[in-house]
Structure formats: C-alpha cells, structure tokens
C-alpha cells in the first residue's frame, strides 16, 4: 500500500484559482449539484479496467479493490496542496433523502490518521447508506474523501462505479442497469469532463465506457481517454500498434486527447509511490511508447493535465453556470412565493388569501385595462402571453363577432344571378335574386293586408321581414358569448396558477371561481335573451332618423339607377364590363324607342313599388338595428356582465367575509406543501450562496 505522506508531485495554482476550486467544492458539498450541473471530472470505466489504480496513482491513496466497495456509490476525491497533512471522510446525502436521513448521513464524519483503516471506514459508510447484501445494492449518496498535504495537486474528481458486462452471483441484471443509468446520468451533464479509462488488456470494441462516452459526448469535446495496463500487450503485436494509435488520438478522437499509465498490479504486492514512478518511467523509456509525446505519459503529467483541464472547464463554464443558477433561483423563488408564508392557523390562512386576492385584483385590472407592464405578462407572441392579455383577446373576439354577424347575420341574401336549387338554402341563410325577394315580400303583403291604399304597405310588414331576416343573430351571438366567457375563464386559470400553489388553486377553483363564473354566464345569457327579445318580439324602433332616412334614400337611389343603366347599355350595345361613357359615332339613334323603353321600365316598377319600398326600409332598418345590436352586446353583455365582474370574484372584502371553515378548506396547508416549502427554502439558500460565490470569480484568468 502507498504510504500516507506520499511524494505525489503537484502543479501549483494561483491563490485565486485555488479559491475558485475550493468554492466549487463547497457548493458541491452544499448540494447545489442536485439543481445545476457543476464543472467536475468524472472517472468512468469498465470493471477491471484499472480505474482504482488510476485513482490510487493520482491521490497516493490505495482504495479497497478486492472488497468491491467503491462500485456501490459515487466517491468524490478532493485533493488540495497544503502544508499540513489531513484526511477526512464524510457522506453527502442525495436530495431524495428525507430530512431525518439527511441529518443522519451528514453526521457521518471520520478523520483518518492513516489509510490502513480506509476499508473499515468505507464499510461503515456503506452501512450508513443502507447498502447490504440482501438490501439496497447501490446508493446515490456521495462518499467524500478529502485529502490535503504538501505534495498533492489541486484537483477534485468523482469516481463512479465500474460498468458491469454480465451478471454474476453477486451482480444481478438490475445492478448492471442501475450502475449504467447512474454513469450515463453523470456523463450527460454538459459541464462534466469525462475521464474514460480503458484497459489495454481487453479489446477496445468490447469496452462499454467508450460507447457510453460517445453517446453522451458525440463531438468528444469534453472527454479525456486514459489507457491502463499497457504492459500486458505483446511487443510488436497488432494490439500494441492499435493502442499506440489510440494514444495518438487517431483511432477514437477526443478533443482532450489520450493519456497512458503503467500502474502496478496490486495482486503482486505493495509498492511505494517512488517505486511505482520508477517502474513506470522505465517502461515508457523504451519500445513503441517512446513515439508518444512525453506529456501524455505517466501519472505525474496526468495530474497536472487534469488540474489544468478542470480549471479551464470551470472558467469557461462560469458565465453559463451563473445564468443557470440565476434562472433556477428565480423559478425557486417564484414557487416559494406561490406557497406563501406558513399557514398553520386560521389567521395565517386568511392573511394569505387577503394578500393573494389583492394581487389578483391588481393583475386582473392591469389585464382588462390593457396595461401589460407586470412581470406576470409573458411574451405576447406566445400562446400563454396572448391569453394573459385578456383585453386584447376580448377586442379581437369583438371584432370577429362584428364581422361574423355582418357577413352571416341576415337570413335572406340577395345575389345578382339565379342560384341552383341545391345551393339556394343553407342552414342559416337563403340565397335569392332581388326579383325573388320582391315576390316573397308581395306574397307576405297579400297575407297581411290592412287598410293601406294601393301602392303603399302596412308598416308592420317591415317588422315581419326583419324578424325573419335577423333569425341567425341568436346562434351567432350565443356562440360568441361562450367564446368570450371561455377566454375569460382561461385567463383566470392562468392568473390563479401564477398566484397560488396547487392545493390553494384547487380550493379557490372549487369554492370561489367555478360558482362565480357559472353565475356570470347565467347573467350574460339573461342579458343576451333581453337584447334579442328587443329585436325578436317588439316592433322596429329607431330615433336615429337622419341615418335611417339617409340609408333608405341610398338604397332607393341605388335601386333606381340599375334599370335605366341596364336599358341604356342594351340600347347602345355596351357590354357590362365596359365604361359607362361612349364616344359619339356617325349615324343616328331612335330616341323615341329609347323613351319608350324607359317608360316601360317605370310602369313595370310601379307594379312592384310597395314591395320595393318595403325592401328598402327593411334593408335600412336592418343596418341601423345591426349596428346598435353589435354595440349593445359589447357594452351591456361583455363589459357590464363579464369584465366588470372579473376582479370582484376574489377580493380582500370577500375573503374577510369567508367563514373559518371555508378559509381552511381553501388555504389550509397540507403536509405535502409544508415539506415542499422546506425543500424549496433549502434549495433557495443553496442557489443564493452559489450565485454569490460564482459572481466573485467573474473575469478570473486561468494560467496556462
């Protein structure tokens, strides 16, 4: 076994760089790696790849090999160069542990005087983690081994369990899958440097670690390969040539390259570190290994290389690490804010609801006023951000309704040409020519004749025609009301999700929001019935006489221009697609014939005068009534019955009036919520410390 005061050479760091390494280690010890990926070196390899010998050579500490203890949990090896020699062993509990388990495991601390007792200490750690032959096979807790001394490099590495090829009496299929999942989980962390250890004793293609490293790091940017047991290769063999090519980064290419170590066989006895160095140096001084760069051979060069790689990785990842911690901090803080202060009694619960209702009213008022200057409002280009801007949603739905009812709100639609019988009627409308419409009106006039003189019409005919013409309004407006109500409900759900934890949100939905929204819908439906009744059951009324009369005159003028224009086109032989002006040509026109044609047109119009007048009045009144109906729906239903009621659904006054039983049902805190608050509080503290620590080193330059 290597002696405690080993003479392992070290590459010195500056004081700032050493403090950076120590700070990252402290963050890891606090458990920040449970929330963000920290820059670190992980040692991976197949079982019997010589991984333990690599760790022993780096640290000068002989880890138990035959007992296979290290395969059951990750081991964090912390090496620091200090004037004084010390060795401490502790357990860093995994985040998934309960509070009692965390306290118990954190209390496991051992300080060693020498490493002869290391196997016993690791056995005790294994027992503390709950690992046993017939119990749990693997733990996610980390065994932390901290070694300081004058001859150690500044380095932190995490040793992972060896990858198993096949099941044995003591290693089941589930053990194989579990260890592989854990190793892959570490490898996939984007800030991890992968130290992939392969044994020259085995075929390259059979070593699982290379396959997993390639899968986790396809470009090879953060992988450093280590070849062990080169002394088992036959000189001049194809295998030796293959591994030399591998060491030259020609066979499997990694950005960080490869390194070769000649470790000692523990089964052949124990060696001092000086003896190990001498044997390794002698081995690399001859044969094909002299072809390789001196910096990629031997443990001394590997220590310095790893120190530089780790420092470089930390420095390059520091800006993105700060961003990630900052983002996670904000998310954690938001979750804690939603949970609010502890609510163990009715007064605390009521206070929580009062605070929540106050902010609810603020957000709703901002949203309905169109003042989107609160952090609550996400990017408007996203679906969530648009739904939060409820005023924009309402405005757009109002415009869609106005357009829809203007285009499809009339039952009879006049077209210029005859329509096939199959296409004449649809679910909502009937398409017909003006002549057909006039015929329909005349038929209705005969059925409803009163004492009116010939050529005139009963004013109530306009009421009958309007009732028929506005028939589609009801289905259009009810569909629109449901859409607007649904958008408001969706908005409230988003606000509630933003403000309250899941338990409180469900309570508020069940006891407050659902009943309130149902009541709002009933009020909207009642007002809709009232507005429709004014047009469906009453007689036409408008005191907007100027607009009505002007519209009637416009319809008359348009109608009276059509027949003379058609006659003139026919008389002068002008196509409908041509201009209405013509150049005077040589020749004569029969003006008497033209006068006869115009007279015939006037006489024909007189036969349908009353029907035409009734149709003009219908069209004018429909236009006036539609404009009024659209405005009434927007103001009296949407604004008065929906928008005005939204912020009153939950108010401090309504919370004050709640019974203690209702307050408890809504805001009473479950054990799950209390546990979540404790966990989030710990996480927030860890992330806050991590953020402060990392920001101290922004701009630090790494030597070398």
Characterize the structure shown:
It is a single chain. This protein is of the alpha/beta class. It has helices spanning 15-30, 51-59, 99-106, 118-128, 173-187, 208-216, 238-247, 273-284, 299-339, 346-369, 383-388, 390-408, 421-424, 434-447, 460-469, 473-499, 502-536, 545-572, 591-607, 609-646, 652-657, 660-667, 671-695, and strands spanning 40-45, 75-81, 86-92, 109-111, 142-149, 155-159, 192-199, 223-228, 258-260, 412-414, 430-432. It is elongated, with a radius of gyration of 43 Å. The two termini are 34 Å apart. It comes from Podospora didyma.
Key attributes of the depicted protein:
704 residues; two-stranded parallel ribbon; 8% strand
Average pLDDT rating = 81
Question: What topology, given as strand order, has the largest sheet?
Answer: 4-3-5-2-6-1-7-8-9
From the N-terminal CA to the C-terminal CA, the straight-line distance is 34 Å
Put simply, the count of helices is 23
Report the radius of gyration as a whole number of Å: 43 Å
Query: What class do helices, strands and sheet pairing give?
Result: alpha/beta
Tell me the helix content.
Answer: 55-70%
Number of strands: 11
Low-confidence stretches: 1-12
Q: In one word, what is the shape? A: elongated
Strand content: 5-15%
Task: Tell me about the largest β-sheet.
Answer: 9 strands, mixed
Domain GED: 611-702
GO cellular component, one term: mitochondrion
Domain Dynamin-type G: 35-319
Protein name: P-loop containing nucleoside triphosphate hydrolase protein
């Amino acid at each position: 076994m290597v002696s405690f005061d080993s003479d392992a050479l070290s590459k010195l760091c500056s004081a700032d760089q050493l403090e950076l390494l120590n700070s990252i280690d402290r963050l890891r010890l606090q458990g920040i790696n449970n929330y963000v990926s920290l820059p670190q070196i992980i040692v991976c390899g197949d079982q019997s790849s010589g991984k333990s010998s690599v760790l022993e050579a780096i640290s000068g500490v002989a880890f138990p090999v035959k007992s296979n203890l290290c395969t059951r949990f990750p081991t964090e090896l912390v090496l620091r160069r200090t004037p004084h020699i010390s060795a401490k062993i502790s357990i860093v509990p995994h985040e998934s542990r309960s509070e009692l388990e965390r306290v118990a495991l954190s209390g496991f601390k051992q300080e060693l005087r020498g490493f002869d007792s290391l196997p016993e200490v690791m056995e005790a750690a294994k027992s503390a983690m709950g690992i046993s032959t017939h119990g749990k096979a693997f733990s996610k807790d980390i065994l932390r081994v901290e070694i300081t001394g004058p001859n150690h490099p500044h380095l932190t590495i995490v040793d992972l369990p060896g990858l198993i090829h096949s099941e044995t009496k003591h290693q089941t299929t589930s053990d194989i899958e579990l260890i592989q999942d854990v190793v892959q989980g570490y490898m996939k962390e984007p800030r991890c440097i992968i130290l992939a250890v392969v044994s020259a004793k085995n075929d390259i293609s059979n070593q699982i670690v290379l396959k997993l490293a390639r899968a986790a790091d396809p470009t090879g940017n953060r992988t450093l390969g280590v070849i062990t047991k080169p002394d088992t290769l036959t000189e001049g063999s194809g295998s030796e040539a293959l591994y030399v090519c591998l060491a030259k980064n020609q066979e499997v290419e990694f950005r960080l390259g490869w390194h070769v170590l000649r470790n000692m066989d523990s089964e052949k006895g124990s060696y001092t570190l000086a003896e190990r160095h001498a044997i390794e140096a002698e081995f690399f001084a001859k044969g094909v290994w002299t072809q390789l760069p001196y910096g990629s051979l031997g443990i001394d060069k590997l220590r310095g290389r790893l120190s530089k790689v780790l420092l470089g990785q930390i420095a390059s990842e520091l800006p993105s690490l700060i961003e990630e911690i900052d983002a996670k901090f904000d998310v954690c803080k938001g979750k804690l804010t939603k949970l609010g202060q502890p609510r163990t009694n009715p007064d605390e619960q009521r206070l929580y609801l009062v605070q929540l209702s106050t902010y609810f009213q603020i957000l709703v008022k901002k949203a309905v006023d169109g003042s989107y200057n609160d952090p609550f409002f996400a990017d408007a280009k996203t679906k969530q951000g648009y739904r939060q801007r409820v005023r924009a949603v309402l405005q757009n739905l109002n415009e869609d309704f106005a357009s829809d009812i203007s285009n499809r709100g009339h039952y009879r639609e006049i077209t210029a040409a005859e329509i096939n019988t199959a296409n004449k009627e649809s679910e909502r409308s009937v398409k017909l020519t003006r002549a057909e419409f006039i015929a329909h009106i005349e038929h209705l006039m005969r059925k409803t004749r009163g004492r009116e003189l010939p050529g005139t019409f009963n004013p109530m005919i306009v009421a009958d025609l309007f009732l028929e013409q506005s028939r589609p309004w009801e289905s259009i407006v009810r569909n629109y009301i449901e859409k607007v109500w649904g958008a408001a409900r969706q908005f409230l759900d988003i606000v509630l999700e933003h403000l309250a934890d899941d338990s409180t949100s469900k309570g508020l939905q069940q006891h407050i929001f659902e009943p309130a929204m149902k009541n709002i819908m009933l009020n909207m439906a009642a007002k809709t019935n009232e507005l429709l009744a004014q047009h469906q059951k009453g007689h036409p009324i408008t005191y907007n006489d100027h607009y009505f009369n002007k519209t009637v005159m416009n319809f008359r003028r348009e109608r009276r221009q059509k027949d003379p224009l058609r006659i003139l086109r026919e008389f002068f032989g002008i196509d409908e697609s041509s201009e209405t002006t013509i150049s005077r040509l040589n020749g004569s026109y029969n003006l008497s014939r033209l006068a006869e044609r115009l007279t015939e047109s006037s006489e024909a119009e007189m036969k349908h005068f009353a029907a035409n007048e009734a149709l003009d009045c219908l069209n004018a009144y429909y236009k006036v009534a539609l404009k009024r109906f659209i405005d009434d729906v927007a103001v009296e239903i949407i604004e008065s019955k929906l928008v005005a009621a939204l912020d009153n659904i939950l108010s401090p006054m309504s919370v004050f009036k709640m019974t203690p039983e209702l307050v408890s049902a809504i805001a009473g805190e479950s054990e799950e919520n209390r546990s979540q608050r404790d966990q989030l509080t710990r996480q927030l503290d860890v992330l806050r410390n991590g953020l402060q620590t990392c920001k101290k080193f922004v701009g630090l330059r790494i030597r070398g």
